[in-house]
Specification:
Blueprint (H helix, E strand, L loop, with lengths): L2 H30 L7 H19 L2 H25 L6 H22 L4 E3 L10 E2 L5 E2 L2 H18 L1 H11 L1 H6 L4 H27 L2 E3 L6 H11 L4 H22 L2 H4 L4 H5 L1 H13 L17
Antiparallel strand pairs: 1-4, 2-3
Length: 303
């Protein structure tokens, strides 16, 4: 394997890391506050779709990223109202959002762009690469941004009073409430942050990395992000490393598919299953050992 191939694999893995890392870090923040959301797959779908629309209307990919974050915020607010303020079940809204995203985006692509199942985002609505080499390999500005987000999230969660309160309402909301901490406000804020990060991840798929909107654009990344969150032990920095691992196998399948001399010996369809196989192995290996926050997924009602 020559230097150009190594660089291509590395940069491709970093690009594939971004949506999983952003969604995982958001999920860590939400569950550290005690709120479970399994609807990230749906948020990725909707934010990729609307992010592309906003980017095309403005002729700017960064507007698409902001639009994706806004869409994520809207769904986060809905989930937060249902689970935090109305004390509803944490799982059912996420299932509904995932099903809605799968159907609505497929319909929306045909309704808005008039194409069946796929739409290519114009180059002027995509984010320009931060760096590109002579072989066409590029580095997206979203890669360093994602790394910075994970580092800042770790620092905030474990080194600041705000992060301490986030963790307190997820571990022991009764004690936090007794100390005067507004449990509902901190939980709701954590859900908004998590959903906004997932929204950015979804928009990144369409206006940066893939440059297209498809009816299956999320491709299970929302669920992989949840598995990565558990793998990380609810730690943003470890989640960043896990996202790179999953991103490597995701990119490896694409790399083999695009190189016929490899595809002839290693079926890319087999490689394409590796991120999901790795997810199953990781989850199976940590079942019974991973310890979520004590009040994770449990509505808090003041006595």
């Amino acid at each position: 394997m020559n230097e150009a191939m190594v660089i291509s694999l590395l940069l491709g893995s970093l690009a594939a890391m971004v949506p999983i890392a952003l969604t995982s870090v958001g999920a860590v923040i939400s569950e550290r506050a005690g709120v479970v959301n399994i609807g990230y797959e749906g948020i990725l779908m909707f934010s990729a779709f609307f992010g592309a629309i906003f980017a095309e209307l403005a002729g700017n990919g960064w507007v698409g990223i902001l639009g994706g974050a806004f869409v994520g915020l809207l769904f986060g607010a809905l989930h937060g109202v249902l689970t935090v303020y109305l004390k509803g079940d944490h799982v059912i809204p996420g299932i509904g959002l995932n099903l809605l995203g799968a159907g609505a985006v497929a319909f929306g692509i045909r309704a808005y762009w008039g194409t069946a199942g796929q739409h290519t985002v114009p180059s002027d609505a995509q984010i320009s690469p931060l760096w590109m080499d002579a072989f066409g390999n590029s580095l997206s500005p979203m890669v360093p941004i994602t790394i910075a987000v994970a580092i800042v999230a770790w620092w905030v969660l474990f080194k600041t009073p705000f992060g301490l309160r986030i963790r307190a309402v997820g571990e022991n909301p009764e004690a936090a409430d007794a100390l005067g901490i507004n449990v509902e406000l901190y939980r709701f804020t954590a859900v908004l942050i998590a959903s906004a990060l997932a929204g950015v991840a979804g928009a990144y798929l369409s206006v940066d990395w893939l440059g297209t909107v498809t009816k299956q654009i999320a491709a299970g990344r929302g669920f992989i992000a949840l598995a990565n969150m558990v793998f990380s032990g609810w730690n943003p920095l470890i989640a960043l490393g896990g996202a790179f691992l999953f991103g490597f196998f995701d990119n490896l399948a694409i790399y083999i598919q695009n190189n016929p001399w490899l595809a002839g010996t290693i079926p890319w369809q087999f490689i394409a299953t590796l991120p999901y196989v790795v997810t199953l192995i990781v989850v199976a290996g940590i079942i019974g050992r991973a310890r979520p926050p004590k009040w994770d997924g449990r509505p808090y009602k003041r006595e």
